[in-house]
């Protein structure tokens, strides 16, 4: 099962880490591996070809 | 030495001799200072293998292997510190060069930690008193962490706070500016190192954790104090003094696999564990794991 982290959960984890003086660093593949973001219609404008279906 | 010489079959195969038992024993024996002598053990092992192996040398007539082994005359042993060191100083006076040269040399591989152990046992009872100095608050995460560490690891509890005395032992936690000197370090930014430095002094029944100003460093000190102050590993249960000079940015763990992410509570445990090991940066891979907000109307 692929568990996805919601923004609230990620914020909770960030706050927890900061409480222990640990900085949480989001890691994103870029630029050729962000199809998981660009596949959403709201980010279509960021695609190299907006009409392309990912 | 005759038993170690190769047989004719070994020569033909070009095989390396098996390690004698004395080498295996020495390499696998537990060291007085875990992690310190390992480098020397490794050197000892590699030296033996270097000098006791068969090497194929190109010959014009070809094919024949030559045994070049010889008896080692160099012996490197995991030597403990030869100097007898006095009891740990629990005073507040800054000491510019507290680390004996021999120990610093042995600890060089770790880089950030220095210290000495005087060989005497350090013992703290079941109920430990805590003294907070220099503006450390009771609700500080460092104090919380100290409580948690003592309770979960060693079943010790804090007897009282604020200048309380206990026969079971006292843990003092203090923030004191300009109380630590870094001394020799690989990193040139000694001011940044000093901000994260702490000194942990283990007396017969006392643990003094002192850091410069940041609560973060005090937390590391508390974690170390909770580890060192009870019946832990042999070396850490001894009295002595250690100086952690800190790292400017110590980012170690990384969580993120393409199709799997742990639950939030497991992630928190990982973060907490990272903090315990003096990690101050934690990378988490978001690809495919983060639920991006969607505008209304989109599927």
Characteristic terms for this protein:
heterodimer, A: 54 residues, alpha+beta, 31% helix, B: 299 residues, alpha/beta, seven-stranded mixed β-sheet, 27% helix, globular
Outline:
The complex is a heterodimer of chains A (54) and B (299). Chain A is built from two helices and one strand; from the N terminus they run H-E-H.
Oligomer: heterodimer
Class computed from helices, strands and strand pairing of chain A? alpha+beta
Strand content of chain A: 5-15%
H/E series of chain B: HHHEEHEEHEEHEEHEEHE
The low-pLDDT segments of chain B are 1-7, 27-91, 93-112, 229-239
Strand content of chain B: 15-25%
- For the termini of chain B, the CA-CA separation is 80 Å
Beginning-to-end CA distance, first to last residue of chain A: 22 Å
Helical coverage of chain B, percent range: 25-40%
Largest sheet of chain A: none
Strand order of the largest sheet of chain B: 3-9-7-8-6-4-5
Secondary structure tally: strands of chain A: 1
Radius of gyration of chain B: 26 Å
Helix content of chain A: 25-40%
* Shape type of chain A: elongated
Shape of chain B: globular
Polypeptide structure, described:
The complex is a heterodimer of chains A (54) and B (299). With 54 residues, chain A is of the alpha+beta class. Chain A has 2 helices and 1 strand; from the N terminus they run H-E-H. Chain A is elongated, with a radius of gyration of 15 Å. Chain B contains 8 helices and 11 strands. Chain B has helices at residues 8-13, 21-28, 38-51, 101-106, 141-154, 190-196, 215-228, 264-276, and strands at 54-55, 66-67, 113-121, 127-133, 157-158, 170-175, 198-202, 206-211, 238-244, 251-255, 281-285. In chain B, helix 5 (141-154) packs parallel to helix 7 (215-228). The longest helix of chain B is centred in the N-terminal third of the chain and has 14 residues, at 38-51. The model of chain B is unreliable at 1-7, 27-91, 93-112 and 229-239 (pLDDT under 50). At the A-B interface, helix 1 and strand 1 of A face helix 7, helix 8 and strand 11 of B. Strand 1 (23-27) of chain A pairs parallel with strand 11 of chain B.
């Amino acid at each position: 099962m692929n568990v996805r982290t919601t923004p609230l959960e990620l914020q909770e984890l960030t706050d927890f880490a900061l409480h222990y003086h640990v900085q949480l660093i989001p890691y994103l593949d870029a630029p050729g591996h962000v199809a998981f973001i660009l596949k959403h219609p709201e980010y279509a404008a960021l695609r190299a070809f907006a009409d392309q279906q990912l | 030495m005759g038993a170690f010489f190769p047989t004719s079959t070994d020569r033909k195969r070009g095989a390396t001799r098996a390690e004698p038992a004395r080498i295996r024993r020495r390499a696998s024996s537990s060291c007085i200072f875990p992690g310190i002598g390992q480098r020397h053990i490794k050197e000892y092992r590699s030296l033996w293998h270097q000098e006791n192996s068969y090497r194929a040398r190109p010959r014009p007539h070809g094919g024949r292997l030559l045994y070049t082994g010889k008896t080692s005359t160099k012996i490197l042993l995991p030597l403990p510190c030869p100097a007898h060191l006095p009891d740990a100083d629990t005073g507040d006076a800054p000491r510019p060069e507290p680390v004996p040269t021999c120990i610093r040399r042995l600890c060089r591989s770790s880089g950030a930690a220095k210290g000495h152990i005087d060989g005497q046992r350090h013992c703290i009872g079941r109920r430990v008193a805590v003294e907070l100095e220099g503006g450390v608050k009771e609700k500080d995460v460092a104090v919380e962490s100290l409580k948690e560490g003592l309770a979960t690891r060693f079943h010790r509890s804090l007897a009282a706070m604020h200048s309380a005395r206990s026969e079971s032992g006292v843990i003092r936690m203090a923030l004191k500016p300009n109380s630590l000197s870094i001394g020799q370090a690989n990193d040139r930014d000694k001011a940044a190192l000093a901000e994260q430095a702490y000194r942990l002094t283990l007396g017969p029944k006392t643990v003094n954790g002192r850091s410069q100003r940041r609560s973060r460093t005090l937390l590391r000190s508390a974690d170390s104090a909770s580890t060192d102050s009870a019946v832990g590993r042999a070396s850490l249960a001894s009295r002595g003094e250690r100086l952690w000079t800190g790292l400017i940015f110590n980012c170690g763990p990384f969580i993120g696999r393409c199709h799997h992410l742990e639950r939030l509570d497991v992630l928190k445990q990982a973060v907490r564990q990272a903090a315990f090991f003096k990690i101050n940066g934690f990378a988490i891979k978001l690809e495919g794991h983060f639920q991006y907000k969607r505008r209304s109307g989109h599927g």
